[in-house]
Structures are given as C-alpha cells and as structure tokens.
C-alpha cells in the first residue's frame, strides 16, 4: 500500500507520501510546534526523523515547497541539508535528493521572505544554477530572464522545467504506482504581472494518481491557491478534454478552509462557490471522497483570527456528505483534545483512514464500508 500522512500543524502544511516501493516524498514543511507549550501541534522534526529511522534512511526522494509563505517552510533551515551552505551540512540533517519548487521561488525578491524561505530560495537557485537535483514548475519569461542574468542559456535547463498540463518526470505508474499531473502554476499568470509574485496563486498544485491492483485513487494537492486560479485550472483542464485530471478521491484543500478558495463572498452561513468550484467538488469528486483541511479547528463564530472559516467549512461538509465521504480537519483528528497525524492508506480497495486501532475504509460500492 501507499500511505499519505497529513500532520497536525495548525494552519500549516506538511504531507508525507510513502510509496509502496520505498520512495518517500515530503510536500511542504512547517515546524509550527513551540517546545514547552501546550499548542497541540505535532513536533514535526521528531516525528519525521522517527519515521526515517524506521526506514533506515536520512533522506527524501523529493521535498516539494509549494511556495515560500512561512506556513509551508518554517523550520526548514534547521532540518534539511543545504548544498549551498557549508554551515548547514551536518550529518544529522535530512537530505533533499530532489527539490520541487514553483518558478516564483526562483524569481521573487528575497526582501519579503522569512529567514527559512530565504534559505529555501538560495538552495533552489544554487541547484538550478548547478543544473541538478531540482525541478522547477513553469517557465515564465521572468525565469528565463533570471537564468540569462546568471549567464545560463535557458534552453540548457529545459530538462529541469515542468509545465502545467504535463506529468512530472521520474515517476510512473508502471514503476512507482503513481504519476503526478501538474495543474499549476501557469506561466501566463506570471508573464502578465511582470516581476510581481502572488505566492498563493503562483504555487504548485497537482493531482497524484495512484494505481494498485487495477484500482485508481486520485489525490489533489492545491497548496493555498484562491478560487480564481482554481477556477482557471478547471476551465483549462476541461477545455483540453482532460477531465480525468480533475477527478479526486482525496482533496487536500487549499488555504486551510478559507472562503477565498471557494468564491467571492464569505456568506452568512455558507460560502457560495463559483460554477467552476462547484464542478470541481460536485462533479469531479468520487463516491466516498475525502476532503482534508490542514487547519486549526473550525470556529463556531466569526473572529479576526481566520481561516478556517465556518462558512467555507459548511460548504465542504455539504460536498463531503453528498459523496457519502468525510470532511476531516487535521487539528480535530481524531479529537480536539489530542490531534494526531491523519494517516491514509491507499491500495487495491481504495483509501483507508487509520484512526488508532479503528480503520475507516472507502470502497467502490461493491463491498461494505467499515467505520
């Protein structure tokens, strides 16, 4: 089986994908736990090191940084081995065999970045200059300009560029039981803004398709992108006749259950989606679909400290109910008092949520559902 682990980090992201052939991927990294506090966030570096020790490894095959906001990279400077910095190469650091970053990570100014984001950017730029151990998602004009300023012909780095609408090289259904289809970022969005970066909208979003014993399970990872870009993804993918790439069994929600990833108005009780967003959840969600909110607990009223938003949560709960599935909030799983990692196993019968000693299983309708 393949296993995906979503870590309870508050409004922050880190998902680990363990393939059944032993390959490991980490999607974002945010060490939000404050030692000695009662914040209930997982001690991420300790948890990840323990898992790697069990696997007798000190590396990940892939570490993806969807964008450079703090909630997707904080603490990375203390955890990973950085090729560009001799001060961050001790033997206890975790190796990133390959990095995945959006083009905006390379091109945006470092002036507005937190310290960890600056380190991630410096590492990505170093690897791109060296021409190894990195994939950059999208090729806007500003990336070509950056390469030329480094004295590099952009065509010499074509093998390290992955564009929207294509598969990520290095993973195949035949060898790995998974393939990754890139939905964003769109080079045209960056081209239309010159040097301006909107991190949430210029982030990596992709569909992971897993295949076990003839059963296909699809998982959407959408970083923090807003409804306009998510709607563009739906429109473009439909226009290309690629609607299978919009289907999902598990949907890792964007932006911690924010209404801004659904529509233009929060709403009083429930956020109303745009037509494209409604199709994404209502048409392309599969039976028993699971919606995962990597977020703090859902509030019962409106406060300034949001997301998550109760109105957005109401919409997502409705969509999950329509699919006879689940809407799961990481900081509420398995309970508010003791949140634990959300572990999803994917195999020949679909996806199974592991809740301590209890297993909840999603099937295709030919067998009963446990839980």
Brief summary:
The protein has 371 residues and is an alpha/beta fold. It has 10 helices and 18 strands.
Structural features, described:
This protein has 371 residues and is an alpha/beta fold. Helix content is 24%, strand content 23%. It has ten helices and 18 strands. The strands form three sheets. A ten-stranded mixed β-sheet has the order 9-8-7-5-3-2-1-16-17-18. It has a six-stranded mixed β-sheet with strand order 10-11-12-13-14-15. It has a two-stranded parallel ribbon with strand order 4-6. The chain starts with a strand and ends in a 9-residue tail after the last strand. Mean pLDDT is 93; it is low at 357-371.
Overall shape: globular
Range of strand content: 15-25%
- Overall helicity: 10-25%
Structural class: alpha/beta
Elements, N to C (H/E)? EEEHEEHEEHHEHEHEHEEHEHEHEEEE
Number of strands: 18
Rg over alpha carbons: 20 Å
Numbering strands along the chain, what is their spatial order in the largest sheet? 9-8-7-5-3-2-1-16-17-18
Uncertain residue ranges: 357-371
Number of distinct helices: 10
List the main descriptive attributes of the protein structure presented here.
371 residues, ten-stranded mixed sheet, 10 helices, 18 strands
Write the layout of secondary structure elements.
Blueprint: E1 2-6, E2 15-18, E3 24-27, H1 44-54, E4 59-60, E5 62-64, H2 76-79, E6 95-96, E7 99-102, H3 103-107, H4 115-130, E8 134-137, H5 141-149, E9 161-162, H6 173-176, E10 178-184, H7 187-191, E11 205-212, E12 215-221, H8 227-239, E13 248-252, H9 275-282, E14 285-293, H10 310-322, E15 326-329, E16 342-347, E17 350-355, E18 358-362
Parallel strand pairs: 3-5, 4-6, 5-7, 7-8, 8-9, 12-13, 13-14, 14-15
Antiparallel strand pairs: 1-2, 1-16, 2-3, 10-11, 11-12, 16-17, 17-18
């Amino acid at each position: 089986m393949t296993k995906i682990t979503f870590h309870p980090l508050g409004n922050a992201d880190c998902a680990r994908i363990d393939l059944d052939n032993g390959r490991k991927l980490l999607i974002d990294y945010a060490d939000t736990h404050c030692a000695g506090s009662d914040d209930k966030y997982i001690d991420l570096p300790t948890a990840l090191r323990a898992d790697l020790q069990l696997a007798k490894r000190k590396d990940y095959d892939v570490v993806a940084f969807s964008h450079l906001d703090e909630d997707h990279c904080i603490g990375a400077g203390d955890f990973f081995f950085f090729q560009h910095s001799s001060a961050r190469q001790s033997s206890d650091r975790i190796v990133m065999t390959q990095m995945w970053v959006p083009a905006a990570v390379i091109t945006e100014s470092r002036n507005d970045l937190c310290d960890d984001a600056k380190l991630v950017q410096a590492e990505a730029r170093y690897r791109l200059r060296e021409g190894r151990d990195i994939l950059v998602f999208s090729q806007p004009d500003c990336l070509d300009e950056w390469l030329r300023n480094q004295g590099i012909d952009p065509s010499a780095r074509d093998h390290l560029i992955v564009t929207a609408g294509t598969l990520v090289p290095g993973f195949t259904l035949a060898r790995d039981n998974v393939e990754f289809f890139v939905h964003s970022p769109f080079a045209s969005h960056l081209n239309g803004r010159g040097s301006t970066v909107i991190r949430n909208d210029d982030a990596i979003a992709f569909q992971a398709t897993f295949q076990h014993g003839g059963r296909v399970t699809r998982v959407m990872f959408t970083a923090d992108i807003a409804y306009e870009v998510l709607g563009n993804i739906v429109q473009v993918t439909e226009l290309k006749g690629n609607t299978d790439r919009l289907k999902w069994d598990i949907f890792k929600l964007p932006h911690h259950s924010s209404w801004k990833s659904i529509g233009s108005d929060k709403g009083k009780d429930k956020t109303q989606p745009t037509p494209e967003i409604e199709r994404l959840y209502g048409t392309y969600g599969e039976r028993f679909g699971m919606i995962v909110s990597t977020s703090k607990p859902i509030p019962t009223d409106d406060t300034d400290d949001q997301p998550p938003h109760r109105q957005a949560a109401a919409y997502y709960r409705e969509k999950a109910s329509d699919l006879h599935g689940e809407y799961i909030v990481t900081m509420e799983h398995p309970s508010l008092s003791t949140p634990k990692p959300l572990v999803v196993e994917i195999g020949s019968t679909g996806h199974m949520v592991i809740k301590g000693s209890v297993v909840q299983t999603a099937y295709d309708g030919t067998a009963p559902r446990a839980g």
